[in-house]
Design brief:
The protein has 267 residues and is an alpha+beta fold. The protein is built from 12 helices and 6 strands. It has helices spanning 3-9, 32-42, 47-59, 95-106, 109-116, 124-130, 157-172, 175-180, 185-198, 203-206, 237-241, 254-266; strands at 62-68, 71-76, 84-90, 143-147, 248-249, 252-253. The strands form 2 sheets. It has a 4-stranded antiparallel β-sheet with strand order 1-2-3-4. A two-stranded antiparallel ribbon has the order 5-6. Helix 3 (47-59) packs across helix 7 and helix 4 (95-106) crosses helix 9 (185-198). The protein starts with a helix and ends with a helix. The model is unreliable at 3-8, 199-208 and 219-242 (pLDDT under 50).
């Protein structure tokens, strides 16, 4: 029997202070976005290794896990004294691709509002799909995995344990998914705020007044807004805006003759 197999047959060295999965039984992943990631992992069809990896995650065998652009690294304690290093890589979106993504998100008020509130829109994947991008990996080819353990199968239980804990980190902070793809939380939110601030706001978004059709019963009697000049409430603002009419009746200007009638309508 090869020497490395003897090490693995002894079982992992138990550790204290490791990262333990919150889920103690059943499915690991509570939100739709972390479930999407686990679906990809479990689609590889390696049930035994994945189950052992899930046990590793629940027993705290992962000592440390870090996420940066494109790469997640987990330090996993196995049967050897030196922990194994498990790496999971994904291709980050380019700066140009992120610029398209941010413009699309900023242009849709619902997406921008949810993200700025720290929420993950349920159909966020569709925004990426419309741009020809995939937020989550859909095949093994989109992920790069390696581990310093002697197991040649991918994913090994150390990689699986790291993946399960990664999914739980997505539950806690969905922005980790976007950071993995190359855009940190604050950077994305700053970009969305800037883009939203430069967009023209339509009257429908800013007007708090009801449409004219709702005021037909009191159109002529509604009080004028505070600060409106007296000339605007005199009942004759339209006459005042007109150029002086040259016509006169018995020496009196036509506009002056019309004023009593206008006042009667508004009084």
């Amino acid at each position: 029997m090869p020497e490395q197999w003897k090490f693995e047959a002894r079982g992992p060295i138990r550790v204290t202070g490791g990262i333990k999965a919150r889920s103690k039984r059943g499915t690991i992943a509570q939100t739709w976005w972390s479930q999407r990631f686990i679906e990809v992992l479990e689609s590889f069809g390696m049930g035994g290794r994945l189950q052992r990896g899930k046990n590793y995650a629940r027993s705290g065998q992962v000592l440390n896990m870090t996420l940066s652009t494109s790469v997640v690294v987990g330090l996993v304690q196995g049967s050897r004294q030196e922990p194994y290093r498990a790496r999971i890589g994904i291709k980050a979106f380019s700066s140009q691709q992120w610029a398209h993504i941010e413009r699309e998100l900023a242009g849709q008020a619902l997406y921008a509002a949810k993200l700025l509130a720290g929420e993950m829109p349920t159909d966020l994947e569709e925004v990426f799909a419309e741009l020809g991008l995939e937020l989550f990996p859909s095949t093994m080819r989109e992920l790069t995995m390696d581990c310093t353990c002697p197991d040649w199968e991918i994913p090994c239980k150390h990689l699986a344990a790291t993946c399960y804990l990664l999914a739980e980190s997505f539950d806690e902070d969905p922005f980790q998914i976007l950071a993995w793809r190359g855009r940190r939380r604050e950077e994305l939110l700053d970009r969305l705020r800037a883009l939203r601030g430069t967009q023209q706001v339509t009257p429908e978004e800013t007007s708090e007044e009801a449409p004219l059709s709702d005021h037909l019963h009191d159109f002529w009697t509604s009080p004028s807004p505070a600060g409106t000049p007296e000339s605007a409430t005199s009942g004759t603002p339209v006459l005042d805006e007109l150029e002086p009419l040259p016509l006169k009746v018995n020496g009196t200007a036509v506009t002056d003759l019309l004023r009593p009638a206008y006042r009667a309508f508004t009084g």
